[in-house]
Write a structure and sequence with these properties.
Helix content is about 70%, strand content about 0%. Helix 3 packs across helix 4, helix 4 crosses helix 5 and helix 15 packs across helix 16. The radius of gyration is 20 Å and the shape is globular.
Length: about 350
């Protein structure tokens, strides 16, 4: 088992190195080029905070991450925001590792959890991107973690910050309020209230662009007309493992479909903490499948919880079944490592100075 432990550590370190090197490659992600990196550049060039209409309707949304990007863009260019996302991914890994210790898992399973999470394709590519989902994920997962382990007011601070990154963190807010019996709202509200007031001032909608006609039309245009029919909702919930394994956007992992199943099984665990973690994970998957269009990027704060339930379940199996799942997990991690290595190989000419930014 010692060799396997070292192998998981090695895979994690290789992925970390690949993601760090890719931070120095120019951004090509659509949303990052559309507004995540564009808004801070506009703030710097025009000294304006709100840009009405058109593609820049995002300027009235919560944009805490884009504010962090302002000095990073100014002094480090596109590399700065990428390094912040990279750091956020590592913070989630650190907290996930601590979470495994709270559950009294052995070092092998602690590193298995970290490696499985970091080798999720979506996590790995976002770690070297100018997106903001990992920043939201780090803040929201921290809030949920603190709420589960009895720190309601500090949890509220982090969930308030997560709402400052994206309104999708309302899912996390409801989870944290349930876990803390509403106490977290005392510290969360003062943090996300300014974003509501700014949105109200410029657009008349406290939660802009939620419930705006153009946003509803854009979202529903990407799904079938019967998306909210009861039968379709039940079908999506029952086929969630298939959807997570083969999503239409943002691939996760060959094992992604097993994660929610593990969470359901862990609801019956004798461990109170793992029951809470699993419940929040299942709730988040349900919320994702009710939000058109369902994109796995919005699930990032809860992927650590699903990985935890999967690893916790493995740790309770007999040695024979443990070995089988450890082997399957290793293959999954190696597959993602190979894919990320190909990405780095593609970017190597730029890193070696053989290509320009424009090329």
């Amino acid at each position: 088992m010692g060799k396997l432990l070292n192998l998981f550590k090695l895979i994690f370190l290789l992925l970390l190195s690949i993601n760090l090197l890719n931070c120095f490659v120019p951004e090509i992600g659509f949303d990052a080029l559309w507004y995540h990196l564009t808004l801070p550049k506009l703030y710097l060039s025009s000294h304006r905070y709100f840009f009405p209409g058109g593609l820049l309707y995002y300027s009235a949304m919560p944009r805490l991450a884009e504010l962090f990007f302002i000095p990073l863009i100014k002094y480090l260019g596109f590399i700065g925001p990428k390094l912040l996302q990279f750091t956020a991914g590592l913070l989630i890994c650190y907290l996930l590792f601590k979470n495994t210790k709270k559950l009294n898992l052995r070092p092998l399973f602690s590193w298995l959890a970290v490696c499985l999470f970091y080798s999720i394709w979506l996590i790995s590519w976002e770690s070297s991107s100018g997106y903001v989902d990992l920043i939201r994920g780090a803040l929201e997962y921290t809030g949920v973690y603190l709420a589960i382990y009895g720190h309601p007011y500090v949890a509220g601070i982090f969930i308030g910050l997560a709402l400052g990154v994206k309104w999708q963190a309302l899912v996390g807010l409801l989870a944290v309020l349930a876990l803390t019996k509403g106490r977290a709202i005392i510290t969360a509200l003062p943090i996300f209230l300014p974003w509501m007031l700014v949105a109200k001032h410029f657009t008349g909608n406290y939660f802009y662009p939620i419930n705006e006609p153009f946003m509803i039309a854009a979202q529903l245009s990407q799904v079938s007309q019967n998306y909210y029919q009861f039968a379709q909702i039940i079908k999506r919930l029952l086929t969630a493992p298939v959807f997570l394994t083969y999503p239409t956007q943002d691939f996760l992992s060959p094992l992604a479909g097993v994660f929610p199943i593990s969470s359901i099984i862990c609801l019956f665990s004798s461990n109170k903490s793992i029951r809470k973690l699993s419940f929040v994970a299942i709730y988040a998957v349900g919320a994702l499948l009710l939000t058109p269009p369902p994109t796995t990027r919005f699930l990032i704060p809860y992927l650590p919880l699903m990985v935890l339930s999967f690893v916790y379940l493995i740790s309770k199996l007999s040695q024979k079944f443990q070995n089988r799942f450890l082997f399957i997990s290793l293959l999954s991690c190696l597959l993602i490592l190979a894919g990320r290595s190909l990405v780095l190989y593609r970017n190597f000419p730029y890193l070696m100075g053989q290509e320009t930014v424009n090329q």
